[in-house]
Design goal:
This protein is α/β, with parallel strands linked by helices. The protein has 17 helices and 17 strands. The chain folds into 2 domains: 9-64 and 367-421, Urease, subunit C, domain 1; 66-359, TIM Barrel. The chain has helices at residues 74-77, 88-99, 104-120, 136-142, 165-173, 175-182, 204-217, 229-239, 243-250, 267-276, 284-289, 297-302, 322-337, 345-352, 354-359, 392-398, 426-445, and strands at 9-17, 24-33, 36-42, 54-56, 61-64, 66-71, 123-130, 148-155, 190-196, 221-225, 257-261, 279-282, 307-309, 376-379, 405-410, 413-417, 420-421.
Length: 446
């Protein structure tokens, strides 16, 4: 094996869970040069090496970072816990009252809190459907807590969001400037996408415009689809079709599209999504909390559709915790299908890492393999709530928690070390956000 003479970062002595081949290495190391994995393997098989920095993690799990393929960070942080125990459209209406009063500094602080929560929970990449309609504060925050992100610019022009129609078309008209400024920025960690909100909030004209801009610039589209009975009734009343069938008839679905939720799909919808190569971001906790239905996971997977796991926003989850999401996803679909062999632990880990990365159009993260981007986490499974750990994957899916994450590495950079977000005074950040959030609530809902 030909290796560099020295590495930038080495993570040594851990139990590697790779999401590749071999699936597990009991005592191994990951050696990083720059932002990529340069070598890895069992400690006994690696030749002598040196590194500028070493994190020695004996007995801990080293695995790919979680990929959260559908969420809303800044906007939903400001809405977490505010309007519980209501139906989806009532919930959206209350949220919109606050969104109309957002200011850039409050959004920046909320973005930082969301990024800190994800970094501490082992989420290294996320797919943002930005529905606060001011993306710049989150871009700024990503410069301070450097996760990997695709920021989808939210668009709408009818219904609850009709007031942003002019903004939507104006932003689409100048989207080439947005691409030039941000796509591939932050050393390649930042991508932009287009996020038409939903079938009930975007007209045919807006959908076609988003599709044209996305195809012109080679960008992904990230939207909500078939999320509950109210959406199905709206689209059927207006277009006489299911949401999936209507978008397919417009020609705006394809392999560049990530569709979040898909909790109310028919067999015909599943066939269309599979034929068109659409990818799904599955949010089981949020869907259950808002009574939006249960995605037919078994049929979707059997159709060959790429599915990734996601938390949705912290207003409807209410945490950014992929450990919770894995466990809830597995038990929900096992019970719904009366099939305990559905979604085994290895598949659940894939849904939260490798498959979620593919669902948000990332090809170089989600696995531990030489040449992949160095996005990985270290999880301590030597805890009372995980003991005795007969199976590391089983412990991760069913027993581990977000606060078991010890280190988080993104793009070869240590973002969380020993449960501490590097360079960020989290308690001070929380105090300032809390003050601003209460003021936002009072002026919005008075």
């Amino acid at each position: 094996m030909s290796l560099p003479s020295n590495f930038d970062l080495a993570i040594t002595g851990g139990h590697l869970v790779t999401m590749a081949e071999p699936a597990e290495i009991e005592q191994g190391s990951v050696l990083i040069s720059g932002n990529r994995i340069a070598a890895m393997g069992a400690d006994t098989d690696l030749p002598d090496w040196t590194a500028d920095r070493v994190l020695h993690v004996p007995g801990m799990v080293v695995m790919p970072g979680f990929v959260n393929c559908h969420t809303h960070i800044a906007s939903n942080i400001l809405l977490r816990g505010l309007n519980e125990d209501v139906q989806l459209f009532e919930w959206l209406s209350t949220m919109w009252k606050l969104k109309r009063n957002f200011d850039p500094e409050t959004l920046r602080l909320a973005s930082l809190v969301g990024l800190a929560e994800m970094a501490l929970a082992g989420i290294t990449a996320f797919n943002e459907h930005f529905d606060a309609y001011s993306v710049t504060p989150e871009v700024t925050a990503l410069g301070e807590i450097p996760l990997r992100a695709t920021l989808g610019y939210g668009f709408a022009d009818v219904g609850l969001y009709a007031s942003i129609a002019d903004w939507s078309y104006g932003a689409l008209a100048r989207f080439g400037d947005i691409v030039d400024a941000h796509h591939g920025a932050l050393d390649g960690r930042l991508r932009v996408a287009l996020s038409p909100h939903a079938t009930y909030s975007c007209t045919e004209r807006l959908w076609r415009c988003c599709d044209e801009v996305a195809r012109t610039h080679g960008l992904s589209v990230h939207t909500h689809l078939s999320e509950g009975e109210q959406e199905l009734r709206f689209v059927d009343d207006h277009y006489g079709q299911s949401p999936t069938a209507w978008l397919a008839s417009l020609g705006v679905l394809g392999s560049h599209v990530t569709a979040a939720h898909c909790s109310m799909l028919t067999a015909a919808d599943i066939r269309q999504l599979a034929d068109l190569g659409v990818r799904i971001a599955h949010c089981p906790v949020s869907n259950a909390k808002l009574c939006s239905g249960t995605m037919p996971m078994k049929a979707v997977l059997e159709a060959g559709i790429t599915v990734g796991l996601a938390t949705d926003g912290p207003a409807s989850h209410n945490t950014l915790d992929m450990f919770q999401e894995m466990k809830f996803c597995a038990i929900t679909h096992k019970n719904a299908n009366l099939d305990p062999e559905l979604l085994p632990v290895g598949r659940m880990l894939a849904l939260a890492t490798r498959d979620a990365a593919r669902a948000m159009h990332l090809e170089e993260v989600g696995t531990l393999a030489v040449g992949q981007l160095a996005d990985l986490i270290v999880v301590d499974v030597d805890k009372p709530h995980t003991a005795p750990v007969y199976s590391v994957p089983a412990a991760l899916v069913y027993s581990s928690r977000a606060d078991d994450v010890v280190h988080t590495v993104v793009d070869g950079r240590v973002v969380v070390e020993n449960r501490s977000v590097q360079g960020v005074d989290v308690p001070a950040l929380l105090r300032e956000l809390r003050s601003r959030a209460l003021a936002l609530r009072d002026r919005s809902l008075a």
